[in-house]
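> call design_seq(struct)
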């Protein structure tokens, strides 16, 4: 119940929730014949939602998180004891859904397989549990493990952590798995948007990590048109996730679950370096490295499609 309550509260403080509450307050004040105050509250609420719904702002706020962890080619990453890949990537099979459905963050699992095939670590830990409202679905870690096997990672090289539901629990439960095997250093795989909070949380848990971000969304220097200043549903969804990361990092730091200080802004030196590194990463993707996997004949866009 506490977990569900925290999710409801989070929804209310997201940009759409705050803007909607301001508009409702404005309507209520108008009903009390406070015309100026009512219109002002409604206008502020509408402007707030408009801001977070514009592609130009959504790109900036996501880049402020992703820019701290520019893309790196696999070969440039050091070897580690294990690869830890965080959940939030797919929905497990349930009911009439015979197979797991890949989500937008399924790049995490693909990148973990890429790192394993490159010989960066001998083991992969998949961390993800089952949400209370997931019905008959099993833990996400099980679905992630099956997908890794489809991508050619041997099943006996995969360790499942099926209990965690949050980033904090990812770190706490993964630490138990790692401690049992005397593992000290990990390659941490998650979306670039999520990496700042994940890295701070794992470090606070006493785990030595090397960030291995993937699933980049923002463009360093996008070409802008009039459409970038008009509301867009996908832009609101993307900026809301960035808002959630900043809010989550702030709460984690208050509770002592994450290290570091909260700061907002795009790192100045990362802009051009990130664009160059991203191009290098895409150029280095070698589909042939998955030739032994049953799904090797599928293109990346076919495997990773889904919402």
């Amino acid at each position: 119940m506490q977990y569900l309550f925290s999710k409801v509260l989070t929804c209310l403080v997201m940009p759409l929730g705050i803007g909607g509450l301001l508009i409702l307050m404005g309507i209520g004040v108008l009903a009390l014949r406070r015309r100026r105050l009512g219109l002002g509250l409604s206008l502020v609420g509408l402007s707030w939602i408009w801001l977070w719904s514009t592609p130009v702002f959504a790109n900036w706020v996501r880049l402020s998180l992703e820019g701290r962890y520019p893309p790196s080619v696999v070969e440039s990453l050091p070897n580690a004891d294990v690869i830890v890949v965080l959940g939030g990537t797919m929905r497990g099979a349930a009911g009439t859904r015979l197979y797991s459905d890949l989500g937008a963050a399924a790049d995490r699992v693909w990148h973990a397989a890429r790192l394993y095939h490159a010989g960066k670590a001998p083991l992969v830990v998949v961390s993800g549990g089952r949400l209370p409202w997931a019905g008959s679905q099993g833990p996400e870690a099980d679905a992630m493990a099956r997908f890794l096997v489809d991508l050619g990672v041997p099943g006996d090289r995969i360790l499942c952590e099926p209990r965690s539901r949050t980033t904090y629990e990812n770190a706490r439960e993964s630490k138990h798995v790692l401690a049992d095997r005397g593992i000290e250093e990990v390659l941490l795989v998650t979306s670039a948007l999520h990496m700042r909070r994940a890295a701070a949380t794992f470090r606070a848990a006493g785990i030595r990590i090397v960030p291995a971000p993937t699933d980049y969304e923002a463009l360093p220097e996008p070409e802008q048109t009039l459409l970038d200043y008009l509301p867009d549903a996908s832009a609101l969804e993307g900026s809301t996730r960035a808002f959630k990361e900043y809010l989550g990092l702030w709460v984690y730091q208050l509770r002592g679950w994450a290290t570091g200080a909260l700061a907002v802004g795009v790192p100045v030196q990362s802009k051009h370096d990130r664009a160059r590194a991203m191009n290098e990463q895409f150029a280095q993707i070698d589909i042939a490295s998955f030739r032994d996997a049953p799904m090797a004949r599928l293109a990346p866009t076919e495997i990773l499609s889904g919402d």
